[in-house]
Amino acid sequence: MASSGPRELCGGHTRPQGKAAHPARQNRPAAGGRLRPVSDATTVRVRGGEVLISDGPFAETKEQIAGFNVLECADLDEAIEIASRHPTAKLGTFELRPFWES
Questions:
Q1: For a disulfide at 30, which of 23, 59, 72, 100, Cβ 3.0-4.6 Å?
Q2: What does R_g of the chain's alpha carbons equal in angstroms?
Q3: What are the Cα distances from residue 66, in Å, to 9, 50, 63, 82, 88?
């Protein structure tokens, strides 16, 4: 099976086109922003009741993104504390990345 690139998946366009391409133009709320690079990421896991923190991303080919949350925190320490209390932190991994500030 041949893999499809972004151009094929978007009908020949690398960027969505027209009114339908921009949710805000359809009067639907949208959230978004530019994430900082993976070099700015912090990974949070909880194993055996211990919070494990590492710099950088954590990704293995067997892992997948199950969802995302946007947190508004005073600093990285607060984000780590919130992520470490989430039940999924005991089973999975959280990658924390800041947004670029305007």
A1: 23
A2: 17
A3: 21, 23, 9, 18, 10
